[in-house]
């Protein structure tokens, strides 16, 4: 008899848990590229069509992939140079071009996808100013296929911009990336890579199904839990 009562109680507790609102994230992803940077890209997302109070967070992820290209350096000085070359592409969100307030850490810090290598460049061999291929004063770095991503959290004070029945635009700037450890006396050039990637917006903690789930009234939950407590006793 005690075993039967125990099974009944567990079943009723399961019903109580089932009565609680389901919570699930809503994720939207928009891809961009492939193209040769520099380029400005506009991506359109749907607003969250539920209640502002359903949200516990909004997260934006920016991902970039760089493919191919070639970076070249040529020493123009009379002395050998140790040179580190980083080559690829980079992307950042556009604060003023986007129609919602985007995370500043994705605006002020570019997300870079690149290859890097160090070279010992000989003294200028008299091949003239500018990148001249060949010789001990020249080096090149072929781009590969490299990906990188970064995430930013939307400030809760602007969540209302993401809520409604319409859409909003997120703008991003994509550029070729070529960085040298020694710039004085070294000429540089490149055949730019191609770039592609995606931006993902995640609405966290929203109600399951549709724009937002509806929670049972507190009084109903209290009545149900009280009934279960009586049965348990």
Write the layout of secondary structure elements.
Layout lengths: L1 H18 L6 E10 L3 E8 L10 E11 L2 E6 L5 E13 L11 H4 L2 E11 L16 E5 L2 E9 L13 E14 L5 E6 L2 E11 L13 H15 L1
Antiparallel strand pairs: 1-11, 2-9, 3-8, 3-11, 4-7, 4-10, 5-6, 5-9
Describe the structure in your own words.
- This protein has 233 residues and is of the alpha+beta class.
- The chain has 2 domains: 1-20 and 216-233; 23-215, no CATH class.
- Helices cover 16% and strands 45% of the residues.
- The chain contains 3 helices and 11 strands.
- A 4-stranded antiparallel β-sheet has the order 1-11-3-8, with no helix packed on it. The chain has a 4-stranded antiparallel β-sheet with strand order 2-9-5-6.
- Helix 1 (2-19) packs antiparallel against helix 3.
- The protein is elongated and about 70 Å long.
- Mean pLDDT is 85; it is low at 6-10, 12-17 and 208-233.
Key structural traits:
four-stranded antiparallel β-sheet; 3 helices; alpha+beta; 233 residues; disordered C terminus
**Order of helical and strand elements:** HEEEEEHEEEEEEH
The count of domains is 2
Biggest sheet character: 4 strands, antiparallel
Biggest sheet: strand arrangement: 1-11-3-8
Distance between the termini: 14 Å
Strand content: 35-45%
Tell me how many strands there are. Answer: 11
Number of helices: 3
Which outline best applies?
elongated
Helix content: 10-25%
Query: What are the low-pLDDT stretches, counting only 5+ consecutive residues below 50?
Result: 6-10, 12-17, 208-233
What is the averaged pLDDT score?
Answer: 85
- Write down the Rg: 28 Å
Please state the structural category.
Answer: alpha+beta
